[in-house]
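hey m, so remember when u said the tokens were messed up on ur end? i reran from scratch. heres the input so u can diff it against urs
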Amino acid sequence: MSKINKYRKRDHTTGLSGQLYETKVLTLILFRALNHKNIQEFVLGTNIDGVGAFDDIVLSYKTNDSDKHRALFIQVKHKDHPTKDKLTIDIHLQKYFDSYLKIKHKFITDNDDVIFKHSMENMQCEFIIFTSAEENFSKKTFIQESREANLIKTNDNAKIFQYNYDDKDVDSLISTLVKTRAILLAKSLLKFIVKDNFHNIMSDDLIKIYHVYLAQYIFDIETLQNNSTVPYRKTKFRQSFLDSTEESFVAMKHVINDELVKIGNKKERGKILDIENLSWKLPPNFGNPAFCFGGNEIRQQRRLNYVCSLLEKLFQRVQSDCSTLNVIKLDDNSVVDGTIEMKELETRLAGLVGNLLVYDDETGTLKFNTNEESLSTDNIRLLRRLTDKYDLSRFRFDININTFPKLSLYNKEHDRELVKEFLGKLTFYTNQATEDEVETIIKTEIQNISNDDTFNDSLVRYQSEAIFLKVHDKVQKWWKQRDSAPYLTKDCQFYQQAEREILGSPLLNVVHFMNIEKNKILEFESDVIKNLFEMQCNSLGFDWFLKSDKRTIIVISNHIDWSVKKIWIL
């Protein structure tokens, strides 16, 4: 038996009509994924915690003709009046972008999850707004249907398009990006501050990226304390941070204050923990306060030579005779001199950020710090070696390596590309089927594959409806699970179990089940009536019915022999 993978769930917030629409769309996607001949494997989840607005349906799958996994993150928007409640550009792009950033972060940090253990860069991800509403977008670009459309599209009149954005939209989303980073950073910090777990703080991916930024703009770090077994630096929040009205700082303080109130109520019996008087410990190297090569003199000299040679190779890539700045651009795919991969270069240069390499406000890049009074001995040795050959004031570093230390929450060029990346993956599926229409589609598709001998041709419509009702009931129960739930996979037996239960039961049981589930009158053709009573009842007799807990069956037919028949047990 294959391993059951579970995921954390958020609390349900959907109303009844939205719930039915969501669970029926889930039932449809599950059916299609199970019966899609090209899908090798898949995992399906709903209301997944930590992915924001795109948590209604998350489907990750792999096809036979591709080595890459694909993932669909879907928000399902139910509309009671599709023609009146049209989808417009006021659809909270910022909220969706915030959710996109959370998902990107989850791919980095949640490596135990069966979906997020993969690298997002190595997956084909699509972020979808799926709705029965019509659209009223003034700026849109219709796109060619992807293979994903076959899994979720519900009618031929549906529209599939992307938002045709402009620079104003990009600028607005960048402000959301910076604020989201600040909030995520504050949440990461609190995990270590409240537990006094300073030993492991640099193991957090986000803090490792922004530890120099925190040291220079957020924290007031005291001198090194050596009077304990493990050296540390005592720390508190900077007064300039506490007094600031800058949006990202305000967002961070809001998160921290909220958490401190919770901690006070839970652990301190209502005592209010004050952000202004809060203090904690940090490891000595937090924020790169001083750079040193380490080792004996021979090893130090060897490391000095190596770092100098790396920097010189970078200089040679961009150096020119003009008077403009030479900007060295590096990303995760960069290779120096054809042999030195960026991961190695990152480990050599990361320790220079915050001391020898500082933030340049004018360009938003890194520049050399030539003020020797603020540098360590090894910084000065490196600086002097380089200044003998180069004018360091002409060089800037534009580094967009994911794990490289950052000195700002904002990177103009990189962030613009990130916003465009999101908008390029955001797709709108409008004019989709309504709740009742989705149900009809599922039953029709069940009928279309129900061509074996186990189905009775004259009864297939009712058997398919009964199968749908049973599967949808199972999906609803799965949807309602709290705290955690198992992902559904190719091993899911919802449809097979429903098929066995329906096709293996006397038809009167099926009819009774459908009547109870749907609570409505069932209309039969005369040949179905014949099957119902002559074939089933004559072969089995009424004993099974009389001995069961079934109480009433009402048959309504235009056939003269079966105009109205009632069978009941008191």
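this time it looks ok to me. DSSP finds 17 helices and 21 strands in the chain. if urs says something different then somethings off w ur setup not the seq
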